[in-house]
Here is the input.
Amino acid sequence: MNTGTAGALAAYLLGLADDELILAHRDSEWTGHAPILEEDIAFSNLALDELGHAGLWYAAHAELLGENPQTRPDELAFLREPADFRNVQMVELPNGDWAFSMLRQYLFDAAEMVRLEALVNSRHKPTAETAAKIRQEERYHLRHTAAWVRRLGLGTEESHRRMQAALEMLFPYAEQLFQPQDGQAGLVDQGYIPSEQATVADWRGRVRQDLEGADLRLPEAAESPAASRAAHSEHLAQLLSEMQVVARSDRGAAW
Amino acid sequence: MSDTQWPRYQVFHQARPDRPHLNAGSVHAPDPELALLNARDVFVRRPPCVSLWVVQAADITGLTAEELAAGQWPERPAEPGRAEEPYLVFIKREARGTHEHCGEVQGSSPQQALQRAVREVKVSPALVYWVCPKRSVLASEPDQGPSLFGPAQDKPYRDQAFYHTDSLMRDIRRNDGQEPEGS
Here is the structure.
């Protein structure tokens, strides 16, 4: 793999890692606040899993750039400025209500699953192996969140109303997960990553089936509020200031 | 005020294919599918597990050794027209132990299933019997095993001692010029 390709693949993996990290942090904000004890534990588990996935992708990113895969992930998570993060805006939005958080997690899980199913065939072996490892856990996530989407969508008038409102808000944001980034076309051509056109078509088909099965109406196709992963809402800076404060106040501390 | 709590489900987990299912505890859930998922998250995120069963607690009929000795059988007569069906039998064998899957009997009512369990399932001592219709049990599918239980296998479980918090705190206090109390 030449340096240009390695750099492009590293940038792609950084996006995946940042999505997982920021979503993990938002999910973790439910710990101690979820509507019922069992689900509090389950959602905290999801947060931990996503954090683990972020760690795997950060390490793969570091390896590609010849950086230390042991220490670089912590630096990437705790010492970067908001403008250097490459997550989509969907994951940085505040949690809102339970319907919003659960639907966001579901839309993300479905997108992740589609992507992982393609990435397990990546020509880059470490990427393919990491994808295979994560996919096993993602199957469970998707089962859990799809089950909740169904129950909230078909539950009470209130739960349905909240789910529909969350869907109207989130659906355009979710489109950003599939915006091709600079340098990505070459990776697709060489068999390192799937094309976003194929991924988004597969994702739309799957979520349409689940959401309509939950009596939810898909909004008209809308443009994603942001195209570039370098653009962020004001919520990211607030999230990072809380997430990074301990690491930054005592750099190099032993954990 | 009506009870807003979800029903309770008993959870049975099997650590290895050659071991019986053991009662792990209970979870609340709105339905069996979510009970199974909750059971996974609450009880088997770390310990080895190959199979999970959940059954609504209300579908279980119990009998203690004291009740058996006193002839106090639970009043759970047959529903009219209910044919014989398989019941699972769980027995608690030690005071500090948990219920263990010990076999299966046929019955047309929980009461009849209990009577047959006492007669047919030879376990001694048997401190508490539980029976439930097999149809009430939701079991994890074997092909769900990898996604439900696989990820736990390669994750370390760390208790608080792993982080050496105590000695770290002592070091911090020492560096601040303060000896920890009692040292």
